[in-house]
Amino acid sequence: MFLAWQDTLRPWMTATSFASYQQLFESNSILGMLPANWLAESFPSLRLGPTADFNHFWFYSFLAALIGKFSHFIGFNVTAHEAFLVLHFLLINASLMVAYYLYGKRGVVVVILMTLFSPMLWFSDKVHTELFTYCLTLMGVMFVFSKRYLLGAFCIALAATQNPSFALIAFIPFLYRFTLQRHERFTIFEVLLVVGTAFAVLAHPAYYFLRFGVLTPQLLAGGATLGGNLSTFYIWIFDPDLGLLPNWPLGILLVVIAIALRTTSKRSDQCDSDKWYYVFVLFFCAVNFYAHSSTTNLNSGATPGLARYSLWYLPAFFSVVYYVTRNYPVRRALAYPLTALVLIIGFYTVVENNPKRHEQYSRPTWLSNAIQIKLPGLYTPPFEVFVERYSGLGEAINVANRRGVLGPDCHKLAVFAGEGRGAVTFPARCQMDVDKLTALANSLPISAVGYFVNLDDAQYQQVLLAVEPIEYTIGASGSGNFVLSSGWYDLEPSGVWSRGNAAKLSLPCNSAQYYFDRKDVGVVLKLSGFGNQAIKITQNGETLFSGRIEAPAEIPVAVKVDQCDTRALDLVIDIANPASPADSGLSNDSRKLGVAFSGFTLAR
Q: What's the structural domain count of the chain?
């Protein structure tokens, strides 16, 4: 859309703008781009003659195009990506200036804490509307909090150009000006704000209605079912994979501090006593809950991990963070360790949301994984989130035609309905027989499109894997993937790479195994190193192998079966110096690779 404005001064794509896009794609200057022909065919219902539109409105791109035109006028030639980066810089600085104007240095600290020490940092260099939406709604919330209602309505209305549900939210401060402040005379500036707010609110629906006869393109091109997932509205705040708070640890800390300060305070603070502001916040959340529950893609991409929709709720926490900064303890005995804790958590958040990291929404977070392993009865995610995060296939699970996905506790099973489905996917740590598990899933009564069942102990024992003294392969279609416990990247066609400094293998250890009554069993591991790697293979802290590998090698180890004190025999491969191909200048692959594991053989 930036290129459409730049080349044709129109908000829709033409052959000219698609050609410019293809040229940009072929330059390989921006990661993650798709070819023009794929883009042109993505939304067939939004094609009108030789022109094409998209589900996202053009105002965000229009602002970047203005920056590109202005920079060219003054003698600078910025690229499309650079124009968006300048726009992001201006939006963040505008937020900081509004915060300083309204709340002084404390306001600036609040915006820095909420922007730098949150997942929003990841979007700072991405051509994506999330930073645009966040900055405008944050400014809107700050204006509403300070009772400058029309300025707040105008900022939120600008956010509504990209996400029309914000138009309903903008109406609340707009109404406040005509009711709560009805006795105050309107200034010329306020009249302009009223007109500007009206135009901003109407821009999105008017454009698509005049072009396609609908108020928003999602109703034509797909992607939304009004209120379809309203029963799980809480996921955007609390879900350990998707939710804002579990993925914003500083936010949790600040909420706890605010509650502690509030319960121990002996005086009332006018900054948190405006009931009409909190009515606005409740309406802000309710509208967004409904809008987000209408999406057909809960586990959305273009994110550092959490759902991008969760970040829409971040500005609603402004008053909480501001309250903490106003009432921050001044006693050194408390202030110093508390400040250190804020900085430590902030540093962790910056590392986790480093903009250089690739998007990731196909694996569970550590918290989600811990809950599903240790306390699976505590929480069950929405079906879509569970199967995409725990299958290891991400969104590809929807076309893989699998019968089900087993959780990491080895008992919680998500089952797809329908005939003719394939195998059940399960974590390697569960060490189950895929045929037996699939047969069990096929025997379950089909009652819904997707539903959960919990395997009882008898069913669990029934589907455990019994290994044989043969050669096993590792890879996308490998027969021995059941040994991959932790510390491995996604499977590749002919093997798997270790992740970081340690990777774990687990062999089943129960009475069904042919080696169960032996002292040990011989295992030959097929490993190769990324470069010349020093490795050590241990079992319960005892070294079974130590040496260096580079070329593919077969490494024999004697695994002690009599040390089986759980259901598995665990081997740990410690890697001294994992490195990334990107650091070595070999490719853009930023993964820290140590050893490649392609198979193993169990001795008779």
A: 3
